Amino acid sequence: MDIVIIAIGDELLSGRTVDTNSAWLSANLDSMGIRTLERLTVADEIPAIIEALRRVKSRVKVCIITGGLGPTNDDLTVDALAKFAERKLVASKESLDIVLEKYRRRGLIVPVGGVPREALLPEGATPLDNAVGVAPGILMELDDFTIIALPGVPHEMKDIFERSVSGHLANFERGARAKVESIFTTGIPESRLFGVLEPVIDSFPDAKIAFYPSFYGVEIRLTGEVADARFRKFREAVREKASPWCYSTNEGSLPAIIGEILSLRGLNLSVAESCTGGLIASRLVDVPGASRWFEGGVVAYSNDAKIELLGVERSVIEDYGAVSGIVAGQMARGAAERFHTKFALSTTGIAGPSGGTPEKPVGLVFYALHSPEGTKVRSNIIAGPREAHRHRTSQAVLTMLWLELDGKYDNHQWADGSREFKL
């Protein structure tokens, strides 16, 4: 099944607000095997909304709208829906009861006449309860076209979609259901990963596969019918080829995978960061329950901080420089000692755009892993702006830890261009 998403709002077109709703909806629809055929953005104008709906109606049977549901005179989605469907705007008992109860609980003032604008729906439409905000979503079914309108506030939109819309869409089409599976990889660039998988892809020319690179790796997405034996063979072949770099086949992040392993084994972790500036610690504490296995970290940006907080030898910095393998190793050991952890990670590098030399160019980074078995250090040149450098470096050192915990480090097929630094 195909769907078109229409995002409504002048603020989206002006650039003042980024449309994250459409991206979130597309990702969730995709996981359900529903393809987003097109995404449109239109102004808060009734003619523009109606024209978009007419265009969409000729292409798909279902449309999802976000934005324009609210109490003010620039919230025009319901007006446009009523005119498009040639129906009156009414406040059904169900929608009025829902909205008035929200007004009462929140201490809001009911407008003159006793009917808040949020309670108005095109005649015959069904309100979809909004557990987070006031304005309900709208389900309007025409003869051959279904419109689902959701608030533009992201957490309200997500609440209604997850509680009401996803179930409706799951039952909408009962034919062959597409299955979407993801394989999350780390430590291998998209071009090289494609080269590894190319023989498999050539053997299954009709299979649907897509690659989605990010700072943190490449997601491989496979699409096929649930009952198709050929799709299952293709999936298993891809998994086998990608297995050296695959850390998850669900939505789990690499920090979450690491945290689960540490927690199950009763182990703990600390970090010492220079060029990543606290990003590794931030990614770790994003994982619920991180306090069970993450002790803390130090952002030691200056040479003095590395010396005083982590015990890096001053003579080592003077002889080799702060961006060096030996400093990275001492930073990781220092973090493990100060936080009393079994494992510790460290980073030191030149994120740019200045500061490089012919011997140590911009992008050069050293990152280390300290464990009960000793300290391992790797180096790489990570191109791109500072933000990219920080994110990719954080992923590189977390990949080191994941490989060590998974018992794969010593025999790993390194594909990220990094080199081991011998202490």
Question: What can you tell me about this protein's structure?
Answer:
There is one protein chain. This protein is an alpha/beta fold and 423 residues long. The protein folds into three domains: 2-170, MoaB/Mog-like domain (Molybdenum Cofactor Biosythetic Enzyme, Chain A); 178-248, Alpha-Beta Plaits (2-Layer Sandwich), CATH 3.30.70.2860; 265-421, Maf protein, CATH 3.90.950. It has helices spanning 10-14, 20-31, 46-57, 77-85, 93-106, 154-170, 190-203, 229-242, 254-265, 279-285, 303-310, 314-320, 325-339, 386-405; strands at 2-8, 35-42, 62-66, 89-90, 121-122, 126-128, 137-141, 146-150, 178-185, 208-214, 217-225, 246-248, 269-273, 294-299, 343-349, 364-371, 374-381, 419-421. A six-stranded mixed β-sheet has the order 2-1-3-8-7-6, with helices on both faces. A six-stranded mixed β-sheet has the order 14-13-15-16-17-18, sandwiched between helices. Strands 10-11-9-12 form a four-stranded antiparallel β-sheet. A hairpin with a 4-residue loop joins strand 7 (137-141) and strand 8. Helix 2 (20-31) runs parallel beside helix 6 (154-170). The longest helix has 20 residues, at 386-405. The N and C termini lie far apart (57 Å). 40% of the residues are buried.
Topology, element by element:
Layout: E1 2-8, H1 10-14, H2 20-31, E2 35-42, H3 46-57, E3 62-66, H4 77-85, E4 89-90, H5 93-106, E5 121-122, E6 126-128, E7 137-141, E8 146-150, H6 154-170, E9 178-185, H7 190-203, E10 208-214, E11 217-225, H8 229-242, E12 246-248, H9 254-265, E13 269-273, H10 279-285, E14 294-299, H11 303-310, H12 314-320, H13 325-339, E15 343-349, E16 364-371, E17 374-381, H14 386-405, E18 419-421
Parallel strand pairs: 1-2, 1-3, 3-8, 13-14, 13-15
Antiparallel strand pairs: 4-5, 6-7, 7-8, 9-11, 9-12, 10-11, 15-16, 16-17, 17-18
